[in-house]
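Submission checklist for the structure archive. All mandatory fields must be present; incomplete records are returned to the submitter.

[x] Identifier: NADH dehydrogenase [ubiquinone] 1 beta subcomplex subunit 9
[x] Organism: Eremomyces bilateralis CBS 781.70
[x] Residue count: 125
[x] Sequence attached
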Amino acid sequence: MASRTYSATVVSPERMTPAYEVPDMTLSHRAKVCSLYRRALKLSLDWCNDRAAWRGQAMYIRTVFDANLAVNDRRTQRVLIEEAERILDEYKHPEPYRAPTAPGGSKWERNLEAPILDPPPKMDL
């Protein structure tokens, strides 16, 4: 087995940020916004049959999210997220699109392989 050498970037202790100084909401807020954006795109795709028409809606959703990109106040961010969640719940599709082979899709569990069973025990009559 060949040994591998890894090069590491040396960072001076003055430039390192201790864990207690990193804002606690930055990663979770970013994950929430990304999840919200993705859910908005999927919801708009549920209501639209044509991808070309959906692209315009996707671009509009992106402009709405980009308009609030510079908001740094946590209270305002929380209000914007709650408002977006409310809008997504309000416009939820009654029958969302599911891929045919996904669970709940029209081809889910079609043509399953027969289970391999043990032969029945021998009976003496």
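[x] Structure attached
Curator remark: Helices lie at 25-47, 51-67, 74-90. The CA atoms of residues 75 and 81 lie 10 Å apart.
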